[in-house]
Amino acid sequence: MAGAFDFAPAIALLPFGSFLVALFLGQYMPKRGALAGIIATVGSLLLSAWVALTVAGGETYNEPVYTFVAMGENPIQFGLLLDQLSALMLVIVSLIAVLVHVFSLGYMNDEGETGLPRYYGELGLFTASMLAFVMSSNLLMAFMFFELVGLCSYLLIGFWFRRDGPPSAAKKAFLVTRFGDYFFLIGVVAVFATFGTAQFAGEESFPHLAELALSGEGQVTTMFGLGAEAWFTVVGLLILGGVMGKSAQFPFHTWLPDAMEGPTPVSALIHAATMVAAGVYLVARIYGFYALLPTALAVIALVGGFTALFAATMGVVKREIKQVLAYSTISQYGYIMLALGGGGYVAGVFHLTTHAVFKALLFLGAGSVIIAMHHNENMWDMGGLKDKMPVTYYAFLSGSLALAGIVPFSGFWSKDEVLYETLVHGIGTDGGLGVVLLLAYAMGLIAVFFTGFYTFRMVLLTFHGKPRSDTARNPHGVHWNVKGPLAVLGVLAATVGAINLVPVHALVGSVPEFLHDWLYYGPEMLNGHHYHELITAGEFGGMSAGELPGLGETGTLFASAGISLTVALAGSALAIALYRGDSPVEHTDRLGSAKTVLFNNYYQDEYQVWLAQGLTMNVARAADKFDQGVVDGVVNGVSSVSLFGGSRVRRIQTGIVSNYATLLTLGLVALLVGIGLMGGWF
Amino acid sequence: MLQTLQISGTAALAPTLVLGVTALLLLLIDSIDPEESSSALLSGVATLGSLVALAAAGAILVATGGEPQSLFQGQLVVDGMSLFFTFIFTSVTTLVTLASYDYLKEFRYKAEFYTLVMLAATGMTLMASSNSMATAFVSLELASLPSYALVAFLKNNRGSVEAGLKYFLIGALSSAVFVYGISLVYGVTGSLQFDAIASELGNTGEGLVGVLGVGILMIIGGFAFKTASVPFHWWAPEAYEGAPAPVSAFLSSASKAAGFVIAFRVFTVAFPQSTVGVDWVLAFQVLALVTMTLGNFAAATQENVKRMMAYSSIGHAGYVLIALGALTGSANQAFVLGAGMIHLVVYGFMNTGAFLFIALAEYWGVGRTFEDYNGLAKQAPVACVAMTVFLFSLAGLPIGGGFLSKFFLIAAAVEAATIGTYVLAFALVINSALSLFYYSRVVKAMWIEDPVGDFEVGGYPTGLYAAIIVAAVATFLLLPALGLFTNVAVDAAASMIQ
Fold first, then answer.
1. Mean pLDDT of all residues in B438-466
2. pLDDT of residue B169
3. Rounded mean pLDDT of chain A?
4. Where are the transmembrane segments (chain B) (predicted)?
5. Is residue B141 one of the residues assigned to a domain?
6. Residue B179 near residue B254 (C-beta atoms within 8 A)
7. Residue whose C-alpha is closest to residue A333's, from A263, A407, A283
């Protein structure tokens, strides 16, 4: 009987169909292709939910769908891997995609934008690529769709290509992520060269082969004379290059704030469910590989913790609402990386889930505000929108509380678990890894303060106080197609944390930890339980869980939650103290010279521009010299030889048929004599 | 999976019969009213006939699963290999007859043209099924004789007539060499049937290896003529240039594939490398190397687009010869042959398409040199996109199936892991790089250069356009969809090699 898995390819094919329909027929359709997109993504959502239910029933699926190159024992295939992780991600991505499509009706159609068929076409392709990426059963297929996701975000960020900003932002996003993907590509090749396969799951999967090789039961090819573990770490870090580019981790984060030039619903999709999520999803997907490599884990945790703090500080001084959200995205993905590096697989996926919900909400909320403000994004021109747009306000507030990590909103539960996992593994693990985890934890904890601060600064400046401009006094109304998605996400942002109430479970055992159970009982070698074993095994991850002195396990859990909540409240309280009242004023001058540094984003762009122009340009010039002189010289030499040879050949073709007959016969005789002499016939 | 069905002898030959009957039907239609023959009717019947044959070949392949069916006491055999090639022949024939609708509008004797094409196609499908030297020779002649007439079809054009005559003379010489080779092999083994020859090989007398070797090399000569390989290639540049462009398309794609299918069968079934004692693999290695190098080098210096395509077609014959030159003992033989078959499928579409674009240019009265194509993209963007796809796919860029099929050939040659095959793989890479140079000259002329004079294209002929676009779409789709063909090809090759 045909089950959910037989229809699974349609999850990605439906939005792909909407891409074709919107692109070619959108011009002739009401709403210019939006309906096709909505129908397709709703279809994907329903199918994803069906797949998730089937997976919940204990079935998983890992089969090839199409063989691309059938060669040797390890053919290059497209396949589907549907397990707990990918089923969860499918639901998230298709849910956000539906809401973004609906919201676009209000943001794009009602605002009278042109080029809508292109917009909806690209949106469909974007969704399709992400869904296919999520379902990928091997690294090469994942890489292909990873690149498609990158291409689509390039197209969408540059949607308003006639203005000055968007094309340049799109190019920047493309180039910076491409720089990371370059390492990823080498990583894919290295995985093939090392293991001969790039499968994610099964007995013949590369994480499993790596596990066998490290425990001395299998043989793999390593390069450059490195030992198995050192080489695997190199491979893991190469793949991590692509992850850091896509998930905007330091130092590849610079593209993301500029990407705000795209339409706001696109920002919601990029930040919550597609482009940026793709990076960390990949780490979760091959967690069985990273869990073997303590050095790689340390790098992931450190990069994550540092990015969380670094980006949060930049978010503090921004004037545009979307800029604040952009830095908060970078910071939040830092937390997810921190969790994965700190041995908290479930915590990382949990934060990915809650973040997808509340960040989509915040972006759509910001989009609603931007519609109301006639596309003015400066928060200092807003104020007082609370009474004019209550639905947007309450939804946005729900998302903000989640982002700041205030109990009981979803972000609190997940961020708390991220910090808790890192803390206990940092305490319990000996040696350098433990120290790194504690350092990363400290950075993550300080970032909580800044998160609370910038979040409430944003809420207060946007919605509270007195209106500070004419547009804020008379905002443009928004329709159901804007309010609907906001309401759905507002409720979810408040409640979705309930899927994994770890502290409550510790207190009252009967409250279930749904997500924990869900991820722990996946297919063999693909579940949280297995990852936990790897992480804690001495020969692999080498972590162990500790506790704060004198508090015991539960005590540590509550102490950690208490600390992070206190810090979040402190940050929020500072923001409220500074920016409450009818006419808040800028306090950035108090920061002194730090203000300039923060406004300039720590001069990250400047040094990258210098890298591109000062350094790369000179290297390119030198390479050009070499190319012009040596390579071209050789090529020109070869081509003049071949042209000369070619003209000789031309001359033999005299056009006289008796010459041909002679040459034909002579050629045959030469062949006969040559082969005959070698074969000893005469 | 469908069950393997037993198909009776006549039914298994359905594609051949359909093509033959279509040829006769065309003559019948023409005899009713020779002066007022309708172009649409004739082209339609011919296209329909080849489509039916195409469908029949597919249906038989699905129904029998490529299981060999021996017919007429083993004179003919219908198996995966022959059906696979029938697919190529009928596809090319369909495209050519469709395109000829517009091309031939102004000419007389249209019915004769289509009949000859159909008869040649019949001969080709018979070549694919031939299982003895006698049927091989007869079917080769059945494919060749109509071709001579087709090349000389433009009776009032000196170039066409001269090309036809040269083609015929070289063809006669080559047939003589071929049939002499057959007689020598018959003299040594005492049989004509391929499997019987193979079983007699072990019993040849001590002194007869030389005679057998000369015979085998002469048979290679016969196939080299059909595939336009060195040193039997002399006719090709002239015939392709002089012939009407659809005929050039037909000859360079289908006729070449026919030469290869019979060569594949003869050399794997009748002269298996393990028992024959004659190093024909080396001969094919030499021929492949010389053919691809000569074809590409000569193509690089041409001024005339059609003649450039003629030499490029010689170069591609050299690439496919790798499939025979890499059949060493160490090779994965099914994969090697399969790679050659796959290249011929892709080549069937991309090369036919390119020649049909030249037919379109001739239809418009555009000149023949590179300069005459300048700025054509401004007037006919769709056709020029199609031509760009053909040319880049021919060069092996990943815009069409040509990229993967060349990759398979390289992989097959490298896997065979002998010095000779490494040289072949290297030569393929070098020659492909060189070919990119001359293919992109056409692309540059079409898209970048400004038109020389103010030239207006005269209309957009439906049939030609349809054929070109179908070929372009097929070329493009063969990149992702080549996986569908690889299994069929490798299975067919494997079952023939045993």
1. 83
2. 93
3. 83
4. 12-29, 41-63, 83-101, 113-130, 167-188, 208-225, 280-302, 334-360, 380-400, 407-430, 464-490
5. no
6. no
7. A283
Per-residue pLDDT tens digits for A314-362 = 888 888 888 888 888 899 999 999 998 888 888 889 999 999 888 888 9
Contact: A668, B221; criterion CB under 8 Å: yes
Q: Which residue range forms the structural domain that includes residue B409?
A: 279-498
Lowest-confidence pick of A394-408, A601-615, B41-55, B200-214: A601-615
Q: Cβ of A643 and B300 within 8 Å? A: yes
Are A667 and B218 a contacting pair at CB < 8 A?
Answer: no
Q: Say whether pLDDT at A557 is over 60.
A: yes
Pair of tokens at residue B91: 């596809």
Can you tell me the mean pLDDT for B269-283? 85
Chain A residues whose CB is inside 8 A of the B170 CB are 657, 660-661, 664
Q: What's chain B look like in SS3? A: CCCCCCCCHHHHCHHHHHHHHHHHHHHHHHHHCCCCCCHHHHHHHHHHHHHHHHHHHHHHHHHHCCCCEEECCCCEEECHHHHHHHHHHHHHHHHHHHHHHHHCCCCCCHHHHHHHHHHHHHHHHHHHHECEHHHHHHHHHHHHHHHHHHHCCCCCCHHHHHHHHHHHHHHHHHHHHHHHHHHHHHHHHCCCEHHHHHHHHHHCCHHHHHHHHHHHHHHHHHHHHHHCCCCCCCHHHHHHHHCCHHHHHHHHHHHHHHHHHHHHHHHHHHCCHHHHCCCHHHHHHHHHHHHHHHHHHHHHCCCEHHHHHHHHHHHHHHHHHHHHHCCCCCCCHHHHHHHHHHHHHHHHHHHHHHHHHHHHHHHHCCCCECHHHCCHHHHCHHHHHHHHHHHHHHHCCCCCCHHHHHHHHHHHHHHHCCHHHHHHHHHHHHHHHHHHHHHHHHHHHHHCCCCCCCCCCCCCCHHHHHHHHHHHHHHHHHHHHHHHHHHHHHHHHHHHHC
B416: which 2 tokens?
């065979």
Residues of B in contact with A643 (CB under 8 A): 300-301
Separation of alpha carbons A555 and A533, rounded Å: 24
Task: For residue A245, name the pLDDT band (cuts at 50, 70, 90).
Answer: confident
- Interface with chain A: mutation pick from B297, B307, B415, B426, highest number of A CBs within 10 Å: B297
> Is B82 within a domain?
no
pTM of the model: 0.69
What distance in Å separates the CA atoms of residue A335 and residue A352, rounded to the nearest whole number?
9
Compute CA distances A71 → A76, A203, A225, A491, whole Å.
8, 20, 28, 51
pLDDT (tens digit, 9 = 90+) per residue, B15-34?
999 999 999 999 998 888 77
Contact A403, A488 (CB under 8 A): no
| Contact residues, chain B, for A67 at CB < 8 Å | 483, 487
| Number of CB atoms found within 10 A of residue B65's CB | 15
pLDDT recorded at residue A71: 60
Phi-psi sector, A88: left (phi>0), alpha (psi -120 to 50), beta: alpha
Structural domain contains residue B497: yes
Domain count, chain B: 1
Average pLDDT over residues B220-243: 91
Whether residue B63 is predicted with pLDDT greater than 90 in this model: the reply is no
pLDDT tens track for A32-52: 778 888 888 899 999 999 988
Whether B28 maps to a domain, the answer reads no
Query: Can you read off the two tokens belonging to residue A248?
Result: 């905007």
Chain A residues with a Cβ under 8 Å from any Cβ in chain B = 66-71, 639, 642-643, 645-647, 649-650, 653, 655, 657, 660-661, 663-668, 670-672, 674-676, 678-679, 681-682
Residue A65's closest chain B neighbor by CA?
Answer: B483
Query: A649: which chain B residues are within 8 Å (Cβ-Cβ)?
Result: 294, 297-298, 301
3-class secondary structure, A123: helix
